[in-house]
Design a protein that fits this description.
Strand order of the largest sheet: 1-2-3-4-5-8-9-10
Low-confidence stretches: 15-24, 313-341
Shape: elongated
Order of helices and strands: HEEEHEEEHEEEHHEHH
Number of helices: 7
Helix content: 10-25%
Mean pLDDT: 83
Structural class: mainly beta
Number of strands: 10
Strand content: 35-45%
Radius of gyration: 25 Å
Length: 341
């Protein structure tokens, strides 16, 4: 699946290069992104069962996000761009880091190391020159973006040391201390989704970049910060959805990872945690909720970007001289700036 994702990305990028006729110099740039990622799903934060959007994320479970990208200008004014990204994104969550007693007593956790590739369309929303000593040295640009892509994911979990089956699994060699296990094929929720790990994603967000100016007004590089969200068509980024399934139909390892509730964690969770039967399978006639299937999962990234202009110099600064002209007075941001809509 990773090879398919990489191949699709490279083919798309190759066609992207081959099918566009150059408008001028500096139409292309490439870069890297480095930052952090988090997710929104059935493991959350706070003292209630669920909070909307980012307010339910666990800050302690923020993980790294790394990527590379190539971007092309679509028009002479540089308002529209198309960009191809390939990223490696880590997300995780743990019921041990929540204050809500029933979630804490459930005691589930996961990690998911994902490979992501997507194409996005960008539009400049605002642009202002940064001016020192009566000369323009850089350009601040705010952009919005939306796109479409594919993600290869695979949630994993470890057998908790307080799990009722921990000692037995250790002695039999099925697991070891700190060992991570792939979850999809274990059917911890009674569903085998191991052939559905290549999923679609809808990325959208905002970015702010500062473009460096070389002598003569040419753009040579830029640095920026980017906040992006991804909607996905699955509820299994965390392997938690639906109801507890019959452990007799699972392997020993699958049964242990399906319900990790135990007396020690019930005591830590405190009042409102419920009993062991509130966090395990007790029969088909009395289904016990493991996760909420009504809401699909999502994830997001906050990254720092660095880009380098290719094919010589971009003339974006020169093209905008009449628009942003250097006037006396004013401060760092000149009021003579005009939006390019």
């Amino acid at each position: 699946m990773v090879r398919q994702l990489t191949y699709s990305f490279l083919v798309t990028l190759g066609l992207f290069f081959a099918t566009h006729v150059a408008i001028g110099q500096g139409n292309w740039d490439v870069g890297i992104s480095v930052g952090m990622a988090n997710y929104m799903g059935d493991i959350g934060d706070g003292s209630v069962s669920r909070r909307d959007f980012i307010w339910d994320m666990q800050e302690l479970r923020t993980r790294p996000a790394l990527g590379v990208f190539a971007r092309r200008k679509l028009d002479r004014d540089g308002l529209w761009h198309i960009r191809a990204d390939f990223s490696r994104i880590h997300i995780s969550g743990s019921d041990k880091d929540t204050q809500y007693a029933p979630r804490r007593a459930r005691n589930l956790h996961f990690r998911n190391i994902m490979q992501e590739g997507y194409i996005r369309l960008e539009r400049d929303l605002m642009q202002k020159p940064l001016v020192w000593a009566r000369q323009r040295r850089a350009m601040l640009t705010i952009r919005g973006f939306v796109g479409f892509g594919k993600v290869r994911h695979n949630p994993e979990a470890r057998v908790d040391v307080n799990n009722l089956m921990y000692d037995q699994l250790i002695e039999s060699g099925i697991t070891s201390e700190g060992q991570w296990h792939s979850l999809p094929e274990l059917q911890t929720g009674g569903v085998d989704y191991s052939d559905e790990l290549y999923i679609s994603t809808l990325p959208f967000g905002l970015s702010a970049t500062i473009t460096g100016q070389r002598k003569g007004g040419a753009a040579d590089f830029y640095v920026g910060i980017e906040l992006g969200f991804r909607m996905v068509d699955t509820d299994y980024l965390d392997d938690i959805s639906g109801f507890y399934a019959d452990p007799s139909e699972m392997s020993q390892l699958g049964a242990a990872l399906s319900s990790q509730a135990n007396l020690e964690d019930l005591a830590i969770a405190g009042p409102g945690a419920g009993s062991m039967t509130a966090h395990s399978y007790i029969g088909d006639e009395i289904p016990v909720i493991r996760g909420n299937p009504a809401n699909t999962d999502a994830y997001g990234t906050l990254v720092i970007t660095y880009g380098k202009v290719l094919n010589g110099r971009s003339q974006s600064f020169n093209h905008s001289r009449s628009t942003y002209g250097n006037k006396k007075g004013g401060g760092l941001f000149r009021k003579s700036t005009r939006m390019k809509f």
